[in-house]
């Protein structure tokens, strides 16, 4: 009897569902199939975005645990976080008007499908990522209100803060930091320098430093992570390239190393800003303006709106979505700046050191016999 009763209930549920849809009042529901960054509740991030974007449409993002109560066919879209997709664990059935969304906030080269390429062909309908070339944009962060007084600057008696956890990167930032470190006062933190930083410590470091290194592990178009968004905590980010960040954070809120011809010029600028309060305060001019850097026009709201209108979408144009920004990375920014710097000698030194170590080991090895 219980079984029949349950069947009856679920049939009612399905009927109600279809009725709602035909009357056009159904709220689209999006299922988060995979976890993301170890989180099984990141559907809430999407939900929060939708609210922050003041979207006139409503959508509901749900975690996969809810799938047990419903059939996968009940969802209007399914989100797959690129790095967490398991081929063994893809949905067993699929409806033709359902959108499959590929989501990643990683730079090109660090996404699963770029290294494995094992998804079935024509699997995803749309992409969600930080680049505006995606169908839907998901920024790392957004502009908020803040106020800095001259007093706040007084506590900033240290120069540059660097919190680095990726030690060997595609952008080569570690080489540049090494050279800058010889010329400037840089506080080195992060697992790369054997000193991890807690949340409280981070706040304190930001309060006492004027600049923060915000060079990404990959120098790619629009790849701007939380590092550069630290400008909101009233510190001046040092990024690799102006061109790559220009549409994401205010143009006068950061220092870009590719604005300079060489390390000497960069060093002079930093020294000026350490001494000249007025000049330094210019980096916070964004606070007095009404910049609209918070909302890019293809965010989660666009996704939600499209789902409301999806019956009118042209299906054939939606098959086989891949991330569109794979070739938009720069390899030469650090190299150009370091031309003629002492880095080459340092590398030679390391090389010589390795050779000497090898000879020494060989010597020990031979001595044993
Ligand atoms: C789905 O089922 C779980 C338990 O399996 C329950 O905790 C949850 O509230 C249900 N969700 C909905 C929307 O019915
Ligand atoms: C910044 O200052 C303005 C005017 O003094 C004030 O209206 C606003 O609320 C302040 N914002 C924050 C985040 O403190
Ligand atoms: C910076 O200021 C703090 C107090 O705000 C003080 O403890 C520290 O010694 C100062 N450091 C330098 C290098 O002046
Ligand atoms: C680094 O900081 C110390 C102490 O604050 C200062 O004496 C020195 O001139 C600074 N060096 C550079 C290169 O700015
Ligand atoms: C750095 O660049 C500036 C401006 O182009 C130039 O005047 C200066 O000679 C350069 N310095 C070095 C050490 O190459
Ligand atoms: C999404 O892609 C699949 C596979 O290519 C396709 O069958 C489906 O119709 C597409 N969905 C939409 C809404 O166009």
UniProtKB/TrEMBL annotation:
Residues 28-140 form the Fucosyltransferase N-terminal domain. It holds the Pfam family Glyco_tran_10_N. Pathway: Protein modification; protein glycosylation. One of its GO terms (molecular function) is fucosyltransferase activity. Residues 1-20 form the signal peptide. InterPro entries: Glyco_tran_10_C (IPR055270), Glyco_tran_10_N (IPR031481), Glyco_trans_10 (IPR001503), GT10-like_C_sf (IPR038577). Keywords: Glycoprotein, Glycosyltransferase, Golgi apparatus, Membrane, Signal, Signal-anchor, Transferase, Transmembrane, Transmembrane helix. It is found in: Golgi apparatus, Golgi stack membrane. Its EC number is 2.4.1.-. Residues 154-312 form the Fucosyltransferase C-terminal domain. GO terms for cellular component: Golgi cisterna membrane. It comes from the Eukaryota. It is a single-pass type II membrane protein. It is an enzyme of class 2 (transferase). Belongs to the glycosyltransferase 10 family. This is Fucosyltransferase. It comes from Pristionchus fissidentatus.
């Amino acid at each position: 009897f219980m079984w029949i009763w349950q069947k009856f209930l679920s049939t009612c549920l399905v009927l109600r569902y279809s009725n709602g849809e035909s009357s056009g009042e159904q709220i689209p529901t999006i299922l988060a199939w995979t976890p993301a960054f170890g989180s099984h509740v990141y559907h809430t991030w999407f939900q929060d975005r939708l609210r922050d974007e003041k979207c006139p449409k409503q959508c509901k993002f749900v975690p996969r645990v809810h799938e047990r109560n419903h059939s996968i066919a009940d969802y209007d879209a399914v989100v797959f976080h690129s790095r967490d997709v398991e081929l063994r664990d893809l949905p067993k059935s699929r409806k033709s008007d359902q959108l499959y969304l590929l989501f990643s906030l990683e730079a090109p080269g660090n996404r699963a499908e770029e290294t494995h390429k094992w998804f079935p062909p024509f699997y995803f309908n749309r992409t969600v990522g930080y680049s505006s070339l995606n169908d839907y944009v998901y920024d790392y962060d957004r502009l908020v209100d803040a106020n800095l007084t001259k007093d706040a600057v007084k506590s900033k008696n240290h120069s540059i803060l660097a919190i680095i956890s990726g030690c060997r990167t595609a952008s080569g930032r570690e080489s540049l930091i090494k050279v800058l470190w010889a010329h400037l006062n840089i506080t080195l933190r992060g697992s790369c320098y054997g000193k991890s930083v807690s949340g409280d410590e981070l706040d304190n470091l930001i309060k006492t430093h004027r600049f923060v290194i915000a060079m990404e592990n990959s120098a790619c178009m629009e790849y701007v992570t939380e590092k550069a968004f630290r400008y909101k905590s009233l510190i001046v980010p040092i990024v690799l390239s102006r061109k790559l960040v220009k549409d994401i954070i205010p143009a006068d809120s950061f220092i870009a190393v590719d604005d300079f011809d060489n390390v000497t010029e960069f060093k002079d600028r930093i020294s000026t800003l350490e001494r000249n309060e007025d000049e330094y305060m210019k980096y916070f001019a964004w606070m007095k303006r009404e910049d609209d850097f918070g909302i890019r026009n293809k965010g989660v709201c666009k996704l939600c709106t499209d789902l409301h209108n999806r019956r009118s979408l042209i299906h054939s144009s939606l098959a086989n979505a891949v991330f569109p920004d794979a070739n938009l990375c720069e390899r030469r920014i650090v190299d150009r700046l370091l031309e003629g710097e002492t880095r080459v000698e340092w590398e030679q030194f390391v090389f010589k050191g390795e050779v000497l170590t090898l000879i020494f080991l060989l010597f020990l090895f031979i001595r044993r016999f």
